[in-house]
Structure formats: C-alpha cells, structure tokens
Design brief:
Layout lengths: L7 H10 L4 H17 L3 E2 L6 H14 L4 H8 L3 H4 L12 H11 L1 H12 L4 H9 L6 H18 L9 H8 L3 H12 L1 H21 L10 E2 L9 H8 L2 H19 L25
Antiparallel strand pairs: 1-2
Helix pairs in contact: 1-2, 1-3, 2-4, 3-4, 3-9, 4-7, 4-9, 6-7, 7-9, 9-11, 11-12
Length: 284
C-alpha cells in the first residue's frame, strides 16, 4: 500500500514532514482552494474524484522533494484540460484562463501548467521525448517529471484497472521501459521502482478486474440533482430553437404594435413553463 496523500490535509502534513517552510505551505493551501473551485464535481474515469488525483500527483512530487513551484503546478496540472472556469469553454487554454492563473498563482507556476497541457501524452510523444531527452531544458525536465508523477498516480491502487476498456488499453500499452528509464534519470531508482511496481500490479490484476470496470474512458462531471440551468443562460449559450421562436414572436408583436393592428393574444398553451434544461455533458 502506497503512502501518497489523497486529501488536502494529508498533503499539507506531508509538506510539513519534509520541512517545507510555512510560506510554501501557504501557497499550496491557496492552490488547493483554487482546485476546489475548478474541479468540484469532476471525476476520473475510474470514478475517483479528480481532486484526489490532483492531490496524489502533488504528493508524489513532494515525496521527490521538488521545488514548491513544481508541486503547486502538479496540484493544478489539469486546470486547462478539465478545470471549470465559468467561461463557457469545455477545455483548453485561452488568454482569459492564462491571465487568471497568472494572477492567482504567478507566471512561473502557470507556465508549468501551460507546458504540461501542451505535452500531449501518447506513444509518439513518449518516443520523441525519450529520443531527445538529453536536449530537454530544465523546465521541460520538470514538466516531464510532472507527467510521470501523473502516470504513477493513475496506476496507484490499480486505478487504471477500474477505468473503461478504451482507457485501459491506451495505458496498458504504453512503452513502459522508456518511461521507467526517464523516471530513473529524472528522480532516481526509488521513483522508477515505485512506478514499475504500480505498472506490474495493474498488469497482473487487469484480467480479474475486467468485469468490474467503470464504464468511463474519459474524465467526467456530475452535478447535484437540485441543479437547474437558468433559462436566460441556456438561451444565450445554446441558441436553441425555442430562443429563436421567442425572439421572432417578440419581433412580430412589436411589428403589429407599430403598424397599429390589434395585438395578437398568446394562447395559454404557448405560455406554459417548460421543464428545466439539462446541463450539457462536459466529460473530458
């Protein structure tokens, strides 16, 4: 059983045990507050809360005694990919989002997060990074270590084995030897050995857990049952046919009024309230 944090309190106490100064702990407390805003209701494909995954990634980086800026970036590494900024975007980087994170976190941490987002992780990227490993800058090595910490966190507790089939296949077919070699070069034997053990455990458990897998192969959100989307916001966001009909009706009534003709009466059946709109699926 691993000893990496899965809650904010465990992470805070881990930082204290590793003798990070109080200002570093305060930074992580503030980063966690932002995490709760961006990732409320978000889940990994395994059903694990996204916040627990982020805390786990930051905890792995803490165990490697990385600079606090790297740990903070690890705690928010998926901000651009899955964070809910309230800006009507599903995911991705924008000027608004970068400015917000720069203001809240500082340019150094935001730059790590932006570079992490740009590092699309697949077999081709893995081979390319491995091939040019010696040429990586210091910041790119930090970002790669964040990525490898993320990979380890995905495998902990057999997490990959509880994801949908597509996610399992994608992860269990990674070129493990390349990841392990880079992990060893970046953070030493202990980190590489821990990653190897997690990979082996998932490979052994996967056949027996196949029938128990969660159906999701991508991250997703769950909203409270009491959630209701506001009519005005729904019309503005979706540009629905109903909104178009309402606008045309208002324009028609205005034209009739201006022409001096009697106003048409809206029948009771057309003015009945409609059921609340359902929130669009925002799974990543």
């Amino acid at each position: 059983m691993h000893s990496f944090a899965q809650t904010n309190l465990q992470l805070f106490n881990q930082l204290r045990r590793h003798n990070y100064p109080s200002q570093d702990l305060q930074l992580i407390v503030e980063c966690y507050a932002l995490v709760t805003q961006l990732f409320t209701g978000a889940f990994r494909p395994s059903g694990k809360t996204f916040i627990a995954h982020l805390v786990g990634t930051a905890s792995i980086l803490t165990s490697l005694q990385q600079p606090i800026t790297v740990i903070a970036a690890g705690l928010l590494h998926a901000a651009y990919e899955m964070g809910e900024f309230g800006d009507r975007r599903h995911q991705g980087i924008s000027r608004y989002r970068r400015r917000l994170l720069q203001q809240r976190l500082g340019e150094t941490i935001e730059n790590y997060i932006a570079r992490y987002t740009a590092l699309v992780w697949n077999e081709a990227t893995l081979l390319r990074v491995y091939t040019h490993f010696a040429d990586l800058s210091l910041i790119d090595r930090d970002v790669l270590l964040m990525r490898l910490a993320n990979e380890l966190e995905e495998y902990l507790d057999l997490g990959i084995c509880y994801c949908g089939a597509a996610k399992q296949e994608r992860y269990l077919q990674h070129q493990d030897a390349l990841m392990l070699e880079m992990a060893r070069a970046l953070a030493g034997d202990a980190f590489a050995d821990t990653l190897r053990q997690a990979l082996d455990a998932c490979e052994l458990a996967q056949p027996s857990l196949r029938v128990l897998t969660h159906s999701a192969s991508a991250s997703y959100r769950v909203v409270p049952l009491a959630y209701r989307q506001k009519w005005g916001l729904a019309l503005l966001r979706n540009g629905t046919a109903l909104g178009d009909r309402v606008r045309r009706r208002i324009q028609s009534l205005a034209t009739l009024r201006d022409s001096g003709r009697p106003d048409c009466q809206i029948s009771p059946s057309s003015s009945r309230s409609q059921p609340g709109l359902q929130r669009p699926d925002s799974s990543g």
